[in-house]
Amino acid sequence: MRGNPFAGHPYGLLRRAQCIGAVFLINTLLFAPVFAKDTSAILHNSGQPIPRFVALKSSEVNMRVGPGERYPIVWVYRRKNWPVEVVEEFGHWRKIRDFEGTQGWVHKTLLAGIRSAIILKERTPLLSAPDESSGIIVQIDPLVAGVIQECSPNWCRLMFGNSIGWIARTKLWGIYDNEDLSEKD
After folding, report:
1. 9 CA to centre of own chain
2. Domain ranges of the chain
3. Which CATH number does 44-114 carry?
4. pLDDT digits over 76-132, tens only?
5. Which residues lie below 8 Å from residue 36, measured CB to CB, with a gap of 6+?
């Protein structure tokens, strides 16, 4: 006959409360991020602003359904320095969004602090100066990523391979409209 395992134990009630408390704590830690409506306090732990743009550090980055290796991989990025937006954090995991709106989780070690941007729509000239009438260095195809060197309110200087030049900010994805990335001394 099975009875109460805590019956007759001098600390039975206390042990039972401890077990219930432990189960509650484990469930809270596991499921609070899933059910919380405002998860910014739970997920924002790096001290960095959210949302923010970063770049992929590796030429192979697995995007997962959830924040952990136990979650299935839903997408594999194969472009180093590809810009993504961090939209949530959970421990060492970052929920990212790409230019198409695809979202998933990657480990923070797969993200670089450098900034990059991609050309979105049509082939775009990389100019020698931040002026439409300046000389064309090279034409950049859509969905090619360049590393951002600096940005003024209307222009960004980027490096695409060995070429460095200027592109109108409106043609790029990977920088916010009001974000200041001007070169500082």
Report:
1. 51
2. 11-38, 44-114, 117-173
3. 2.30.30.40
4. 999 999 999 999 999 999 999 999 999 999 999 999 989 999 999 899 999 999 999
5. 42
